[in-house]
Amino acid sequence: MGRTGGDDGLVAASASAEERAFEAGLRPRTLAEFVGQRKAREQLSIMLAGARGRGRPPDHVLLSGPPGLGKTSLAMIIAQELSVPLRMTSGPAIERAGDLVAILTALSPGEVLFVDEIHRIARPAEELLYSAMEDFRVDVVLGKGPGATAIPLDVAPFTLVGATTRAGLLTGPLRDRFGFTAHLDFYDTEELTAVLERSARLLGVELTPQGAVEVASRSRGTPRIANRLLRRVRDYAEVRADGVVSLEVARAALKVYDVDPLGLDRLDRAVLGALVKRFGGGPVGLTTLAVSVGEEPDTVEDVCEPFLLRAGLIARTARGRVATPAAFAHLGYDPPPGPLPGQGGATSLAGSWRGDGPEPATLFDESVDGAPGES
Ligand SMILES: Nc1ncnc2c1ncn2[C@@H]1O[C@H](COP(=O)(O)OP(=O)(O)OP(=O)(O)O)[C@@H](O)[C@H]1O
Ligand SMILES: [Mg+2]
Q1: Nearest ligand, CA of residue 63?
Q2: C-alpha 68 to ligand 2 mean position (Å)
Q3: Using a 6 Å cutoff on CB, does residue 162 contact ligand 1?
Q4: Which of 105, 52, 39, 117 minimizes the C-alpha distance to 78?
Q5: In which residue ranges of the chain is pLDDT below 70?
Q6: Cα–Cα–Cα angle for 330, 335, 338, nearest 5°?
Q7: Is the Cβ atom of 110 under 6 angstroms away from ligand 1?
Q8: Which protein residue's CA is at the shortest distance from atom 17 of ligand 1?
Q9: What are the φ and ψ backbone dihedral angles of 335, each rounded to 5 degrees?
Q10: Where are the domains of the chain?
Q11: What is the pLDDT at residue 110?
């Protein structure tokens, strides 16, 4: 999604090609090694055991959630746990129905077909997928117009594992054909600490428990970011300290690398900054907010907002997005006096919120209640 590189590379949720190679070594290989996502893990493990017992491929699986939370890892684990081969492709790679026919007809019985970014699959290919998923059959159309003939081809029984960061973009018919859907959610600090301890072991990095917690709490709820920060902190520990990643070393390293204490990346900060400074805390509509930071509304909604909501920095109201006092504080601003900005005022453009007088307030929606995230 174009969020790597630049000064936010360290905390961007997406991965570069080089990083993907590195990640391969840290990927959990079995469900037991996969940290967190307790519910999805338990459900999957029951489903896979059932399928193994019957000696038949399990239902098709849809994995959704923000980048870097373990969708690809889980797909590989599913194949591994079933002891079947895995074929990997992605939505954008399937441009024509023919591309998909070639893949499907080459599958061996029981194989797992992993389609990453499945929401980006071309429509004609998607329609072909329906019958393949349901009846293990595809109709290949030869020729055009009145003379065209459809030749049915059998497909070996397989398991489709689809991954998407945009579950909302999936068409109804496609979504309905998945027998099992797991939504991956951000990890809490404890889970990320476990991820880091495992990675440190694999990399031979000496990491103290407090050092692990410090890195975990700045990892934006995302294992990929945790592993990336661990590499940087290790460099620092080796060059500037005795090689041990302690609390002090982790803090000093993360300071050098300008890692936001909450792990926010450039886009997160831009969105929060716009909300707080330009729109006086909101409420402001998603599209207006996205345009003001030069991003697609979809990207803001699917990649950026889930974490900001989870961290208690923004809230959604009927009139739009609002910044919470925690957001003001995080950016070093005084929170607005009096009641929080709510649905009353029109989106107030420009100028500081202070001195404009309190805007009519309304209640936040429930998503902002309670804990301000794990950090
Ligand atoms: N539950 C987990 N336990 C341990 N490590 C994990 C876990 N989830 C993810 N990771 C680590 O994070 C890295 C990124 O995970 P993965 O590639 O599976 O994410 P993804 O959801 O497929 O991301 P994207 O949407 O960008 O494709 C993996 O290489 C792995 O090391
Ligand atoms: Mg992936």
Answers
A1: 1
A2: 7
A3: no
A4: 52
A5: 1-8, 338-375
A6: 155
A7: no
A8: 72
A9: -65, 150
A10: 37-183, 189-256, 266-368
A11: 95
